[in-house]
Each structure stands twice: as structure tokens, then as C-alpha cells.
Design a protein that fits this description.
Elements (H helix, E strand, L loop, with lengths): L1 H13 L4 E4 L5 E3 H16 L8 E3 L5 H12 L4 E3 L6 H11 L3 E2 L2 H7 L14 E5 L9 E5 H13 L8 E4 L6 H14 L2 E4 L5 H9 L4 E4 L1 H10 L8 E4 L6 H11 L3 E7 L3 E6 L4 E3 L3 E6 L16 E7 L5 E4 L3 E4 L6 E9 L5 E6 L4 E3 L2 E3 L1 H8 L5 E12 L2 E10 L8 H8 L9 E7 L32 H26 L4 H11 L7 E5 L5 H10 L4 E6 L2 H10 L3 E4 L12 E7 L8 H11 E12 L5 H23 L3 H14 L4 H10 L3 E8 L3 E7 L4
Parallel strand pairs: 1-9, 3-4, 3-5, 8-9, 8-10, 10-11, 11-12, 24-25, 26-27, 26-29, 27-28, 29-30
Antiparallel strand pairs: 1-2, 6-7, 7-17, 12-13, 13-14, 15-16, 16-19, 17-18, 19-20, 21-22, 23-24, 30-32, 31-32
Helix pairs in contact: 1-2, 1-7, 2-3, 2-5, 6-7, 9-10, 13-16, 13-18, 13-19, 14-15, 17-20, 18-19
């Protein structure tokens, strides 16, 4: 930190009134004012109790964070960078891992303005404690010496990632190692200006680029958004992407659009920058040595030949000195001088490197890491949760969200996704909040009762539980096929009565609103007797195409009698069509018969053309206790009985009862929207009419 403090003093002397940082609220701080605040905070910190204890701070990104960190360091104390807002789980771990600390009160910064400042840098800076993002498993507090901090900043400047004339727009939290290095240390070292911003949005980045921003530090998801919208950037000279591997397609799009060389940076909280890829292969930065070692051999480092996949091990002059455990005990960070990253990689014969995967469970969410075990432990403190299993929900190649399956404690009510997120909000970081929730009777375990973590897409069931005897997909498919085959001839009469006669005109209105029009190709999934397909066929006209798809041959026979020209026997989770075959898809009152929404919606997206629309119609149980009870009685007894009378077929009763039971157990609308998001649909939304008739819409991204 000494090099950083010396740079601050130099800027204060040489260009005191030049703006150093602009906060999110527009407040500008010049180099003189920054140095003055640093000195005043250093004086205030000198007077704190526990003079040898680190000083922890949880502040929003901006000038106050800059001044506080540097003031603490200037007083010879060790700043501890914490997320803002501070999750309770991190606050608890601070005491358990770091031990005695002083928590910096933001009011101290205001009081410091009234202090008579002492000379800046009266004591040598000792270093800083940062919270790793959990690359190698459990996130932990890492101590970086003052020299290590200076090395990481110097490396970024030497590599040209930040230059004195830069105007850097910062969307990355400065308490996170990536933001600390790129939006704090390096700009101060070189004297660049930083504009502090909040969450990355296209309007905000467009405004920054239009007003002179020259440098952006992004995560891959933000980079992908920038590619899609490509706002004018007359002054942009540099884009750095870190936090996860950058895909070749996004790199090519950025470089083609903005006519600059994109930097793909790989680093870790524990060691700083490891390598940089400017498009011709990743090369370690100065002061870093990289080895590819056998990931199964944990007691020593056994190097693998070029071209072989192994674990990435790093030695760096910016490496942290130790991990803090057990109230401040220092545990070694490296083995034989090398830090094992937990990432898998390959070294090419020409010496360049690339990442190929991960050795552990941790996954990326927007460039930040999520450790499933940590989040599961917090979720299991909820009074209704017996056990939780956290997995990544892959929205697309460069973006994950958090999904969770839970077992519910006997005698308690399962929480909704909104309730669970509200419960977790003060306890875990925002990026680690679950996006999808799946309630299961029992999570899969080994004989020793350990959770089985399967490396597959996160399943999303459309119902909370299935009727007895229909738990397995094989049993359920056999049951429902026979059920709908037997009741096919009376299905329209029974369901028409249950829908209060709204069926036909309601479907037509929603199809038109969803963009079905003359000449398009439309797929009706779970078409049944083809009512929706026949309406769509009328709308698209002779120049269009409509396919009715259903697993029940007898149902489709009725559809053909109705005049539907093209029918296909298949289910929603395995569509027998080429990619990009349809302009629109409808799924009417059939979600509860699907085994896994993530598979069905992924298939739907696959066969839709860019910009294609999906329309889902469903019946939703009312949320009120009285209306919910009345709905339950009506759907489970009245509707089946009326259906039998209307259809004159006793088999209709079983079909309508099964239909009603699955509605009763259906997941809430928010989870259906989340499932659509999970599978890559955009513009997703839910609306309801009369409190029970739900419709969902979304579209595929345009090419």
C-alpha cells in the first residue's frame, strides 16, 4: 500500500484540483480533497480502541471507501474489506475467522472532517484483508501484505490496462478483489479518473460512453449485453473482462463493434492477476509462474505435459500471505510456494494457457462466485427447511443463476421463492439469492446420507408433489396416457363446462395478443383435442402452418376430426423438430403434465426462431385462504361431477380429478416465470384474469 499512498501524495502535490473520483450521486472529489480526507480518517483511526486490531469496513463503492481504506492503512492499521450491505453470515464469520476487529462506523468519517489531520503515512502500511469469492471452495479472509497490494496494482499499470488519461466507469463493487484492483488501486497509482456507478445497465453504460468513458471493467454477462446493444463509444480504448472465461464469440463481437483489443483477464482474490489474453492466447503476467498439475494428487504438485488438462497452480509476487482462520490464526495459502486455484486448465505447446473447467462445486454468477455448501447452510436455518441442495441454473453460456431444491420439515409449510429470498436477503450476498425453488419429498442421498450432487441441469418440477403411485415418470406417463385416451371423446364438453364457456374466445384473444398472425408457423404443445391448434390454424390461414403435438393418440384423433391438418404424437420434453422451425408456440393448461420445465422450455426455445414467441395458459389456485378453499372444493368435486354430466362419460371424473389435484399442487407463477428465464427466454411476464386464469409470455432473443 506504500506505493499507492505515495502516488496519492504525488497527485495531491502535482495536480491537486483535478477530479480523482465521481460518486454515483455526482459528487466530485479532487486529489487534494481525497488526500485531506485520508489524513483526517487516519487521525481518527489512531484514537480507536484495540490499537493492534484490524479495522473492518462495509461501505458503498466510492470516494468514502477510497478515503477510509487509505486512511486506515496510513494509520498503520489493516483494513478489512467487507461487502456492502454486510450479510449477517459474513459478519458472523468475521469474528470467527479474523478475531478481534474494530468495525469502522461511517459516522467516524464525518467526525474526521473536524479533526486536525496528522501527516499522511506516519506509520508504514501493513497490508489489507480481503474476502475471497470462494474460487477454491469456502470463501475466506486473505491477508495481503502491503508489497503484494502494490505488486498487483503495478502489474495492471505495466500491462496498460489503466493509463493516466483514462476515465474509467466502474460497475464492479470495490470491496470485491476485482473492483478493488481495477477501480481503486490501479487508478490511484496511475492517476486516472474513476466514475462510480451501480448495477450495470445498458442506459447507464451508454450514458458513460457518450460522455467520454475510455475504460470499462466488466464481467462476461455485462460484456454480452454490451455486444447486443452496441452503444456509440467515441472515446473507448479498453475493455477488460474478468470473473469468468470470456467466450470467443463475445470477444469477436466486442472487437468488431468497438474496434479495440479486448483483454480477457484471469485472476483470483488470493493471488491477483494470473494471466491476460488479448486474443492470441493467455500469457502469465510479470511476476507470475503457472503450472498445470495433477488435480488428484493433493499432497504434492505433479506437473502434467503440455496439452494435458490439470489443475492450475500459481506462484505470484502479488499472492496473499495467509488465510485467517480460528480468530486470527494464519494458515498457509500455498503448497511449495504455489497456490492451487481449483480451476482446470491446459498449457499449449507454444506456452499459452486456457481454462477448461473447475475441480470443485463453486460456480459463477455474474462474475462472482457461489459456494453451494455455504448457501445451503444458511438456507437450512429457515424454520421450514430440513435440507437444501443448491445448483447452478444456466440461463445461457455466459450466465448462471442460483437454484435450490429443499426438503420441508414435517408439520411446516413450504416457503415460496419470494419468502425464501426475503429470509435470505440479510444473510447472503445478493448474487447468491436463489432464483428458482423446487420442493421435493426427499433429496437424493448416498447410503451414508450424504447429498448426491449430479452434474446436470437443475430440474424444475411444475408441481410441489405428485399423487401417490405417480411419483415416477414411467408410472405417470402410463397413467396419463390411458387417462386421456379414455376421456378424449368427452374432454371438450367437460373442460368447456369447467372453463365457464370462456375457452375458445379466450384462447383466440391470447394467441393474437402473443403475435400469432397470418402466414406464421405455430406449434401447439400438449394440444389435446386441438382446440387451441384449430384456432391458431384459422388465424395463420392457408399460408401458415400449425402443428398439434400431444402424447395421446386418441386426443389427436379428435383434433383431426376438428380439422387440424398436422398432428404429431410426442411430448414436450422431446420435440421431434429441427432447430428454429416455428415462429410461435402455445402451451395451454398442460404444464402440470411435464416432468421437468427446464427441459420442456429449453426444447421450446430450441425450435423457436430468433424473436419467436411463447404463450402459456394455465389455471392458478387463488392465494387467499377463503378463495383458495372454495377453489379447492370447486375443482376437486364440483368440476369433475359437472364434467361427467356434460360429457356423459364416467371416465371423465378421474381425468378431471387428476387435473384438479395437479392444479392444487402447482408451483406459483413466479417460479414459472423463473423457469422461462432459466431457459433463456426474454421479456417474460405473467398476468391473471379473474384471479385464476393465468397467462405467461416470453420470446427468444433476436439474432
Amino acid at each position: 500500500m506504500k506505493v499507492i499512498l505515495d502516488a496519492l501524495a504525488r497527485h495531491c502535490a502535482n495536480r491537486p484540483r483535478e477530479v480523482a473520483i465521481i460518486d454515483q450521486d455526482g459528487r466530485m472529489t479532487d486529489w487534494f480533497s481525497l488526500a485531506d480526507r485520508v489524513s483526517r480518517i487516519a487521525t481518527a483511526v489512531d484514537r480507536l480502541a484495540l490499537p493492534a486490531a484490524p479495522v473492518a469496513l462495509s461501505l458503498p463503492s466510492g470516494s468514502s471507501l477510497w478515503a477510509t481504506v487509505l486512511g486506515i492503512a496510513s494509520a498503520g492499521r489493516i483494513p478489512v474489506l467487507l461487502p456492502h450491505p454486510l450479510p449477517q453470515s459474513i459478519a458472523d464469520r468475521l469474528l470467527a475467522d479474523v478475531g478481534k476487529v474494530v468495525l469502522f462506523d461511517p459516522a467516524m468519517a464525518d467526525a474526521a472532517q473536524r479533526e486536525n489531520p496528522s501527516p499522511c503515512g506516519t506509520l508504514p502500511p501493513a497490508g489489507v484483508i480481503v474476502l475471497s469469492s470462494g474460487t477454491t471452495g469456502h470463501s475466506r479472509f486473505i491477508f495481503r501484505s502491503s508489497d503484494a497490494v502494490d505488486h498487483v496494482a503495478t502489474t495492471l499499470v505495466q500491462e496498460g490496462l489503466v493509463i493516466p488519461s483514462d476515465i474509467s466507469s466502474s460497475f464492479i463493487p470495490m470491496s470485491h478483489a476485482y473492483g478493488f484492483e481495477h477501480s481503486f488501486l490501479a487508478p490511484i497509482l496511475v492517476g486516472a479518473q474513476v466514475r462510480v456507478l451501480g448495477t450495470f445497465t445498458i442506459p447507464s453504460v451508454a450514458q458513460q460512453l457518450a460522455t467520454g468513458a475510455t475504460s470499462l471493467a466488466l464481467v462476461p454477462f455485462a460484456a454480452a449485453m454490451l455486444c447486443e446493444h452496441a452503444p456509440p463509444a467515441p472515446s473507448l480504448r479498453s475493455i477488460v473482462v474478468a470473473g469468468a472465461a470470456l467466450s470467443a464469440s463475445i470477444r469477436a463481437s466486442l472487437e468488431r463493434t468497438f474496434r479495440i483489443r479486448v483483454v480477457d483477464l484471469y485472476g483470483a482474490s488470493e493471488v491477483g492477476t494470473i494471466w491476460i489474453d488479448r486474443g492470441s492466447g493467455a500469457q502469465p503476467v510479470s511476476g507470475v509462474t503457472v503450472r498445470i498439475v495433477d488435480p488428484l494428487e493433493t499432497s504434492s504438485l505433479n506437473d502434467l505435459p503440455n496439452g494435458c488438462e490439470g489443475e492450475i497452480a500459481v506462484r505470484s509476487n502479488a499472492m496473499g500471505s495467509a488465510i485467517l482462520v480460528n480468530t486470527g490464526t494464519l494458515a498457509p495459502l500455498a503448497v511449495d510456494g504455489f497456490f492451487r486455484t481449483g480451476d482446470l486448465g491446459v498449457r499449449a505447446t507454444k506456452g499459452s494457457f486456457r481454462i477448461t473447467g473447475r475441480t470443485k462445486l463453486v460456480f459463477n454468477v455474474g462474475g462472482l462466485k457461489v459456494n453451494p455448501i455455504e448457501i445451503e447452510q444458511v438456507i437450512e436455518t429457515h424454520p421450514s427447511v430440513r435440507r437444501a441442495l443448491v445448483s447452478p441454473v444456466r440461463l445461457r453460456e455466459d450466465l448462471n443463476r442460483v437454484g435450490v431444491q429443499i426438503e420441508v420439515r414435517p408439520g411446516t409449510l413450504a416457503p415460496s421463492i419470494e419468502e425464501l429470498r426475503t429470509f435470505l436477503a440479510p444473510l447472503v450476498a445478493a448474487h447468491a439469492l436463489p432464483r428458482t425453488l423446487n420442493i421435493v419429498d426427499a433429496l437424493a442421498t448416498t447410503e451414508s446420507n450424504k447429498l448426491i450432487r449430479l452434474p446436470k441441469a437443475f430440474p424444475i418440477s411444475p408441481v410441489l408433489s405428485r399423487p401417490n403411485g405417480l411419483q415416477s415418470k414411467v408410472e405417470r406417463d402410463a397413467y396419463t396416457t390411458k387417462l386421456f385416451n379414455d376421456s378424449a371423446q368427452g374432454y371438450d364438453a367437460s373442460s368447456g363446462t369447467s372453463f365457464l364457456g370462456r375457452g375458445r374466445w379466450y384462447r383466440r384473444r391470447k394467441l393474437v395478443e402473443a403475435g400469432v398472425r397470418s402466414g406464421v408457423a405455430h406449434l401447439d404443445i400438449g394440444s389435446g383435442t386441438g382446440l387451441c391448434a384449430s384456432i391458431a390454424q384459422e388465424i395463420v390461414g392457408p399460408s401458415g402452418r400449425v402443428v398439434a403435438l400431444d402424447p395421446s393418440p386418441e386426443m389427436l384423433a379428435v383434433a383431426r376430426q376438428r380439422g387440424v391438418r398436422e398432428t404429431v404424437i410426442a411430448d414436450a420434453e422431446s420435440l421431434p423438430f429441427e432447430d428454429r422451425s416455428f415462429d410461435s408456440i402455445s402451451m395451454c393448461y398442460m404444464l402440470r403434465h411435464i416432468d421437468d420445465l427446464s427441459i420442456a422450455f429449453t426444447e421450446a426455445r430450441r425450435v423457436l426462431r430468433p424473436g419467436g414467441k411463447i404463450l402459456i395458459l394455465e389455471v392458478t389456485r387463488p392465494s387467499g385462504s377463503i378463495s383458495g378453499c372454495a377453489f379447492h372444493i370447486a375443482m376437486n368435486w364440483c368440476a369433475p361431477s359437472i364434467g361427467v354430466i356434460a360429457s356423459a362419460r364416467p371416465s371423465t371424473f378421474r381425468m378431471m380429478r387428476y387435473w384438479s389435484q395437479t392444479i392444487d399442487q402447482a408451483i406459483p407463477p413466479s417460479q414459472i416465470v423463473a423457469a422461462l428465464d432459466h431457459c433463456g427466454f426474454v421479456g417474460t411476464r405473467h398476468r391473471s384474469e379473474l384471479g385464476i386464469f393465468s397467462h405467461y409470455r416470453g420470446s427468444t432473443p433476436r439474432a
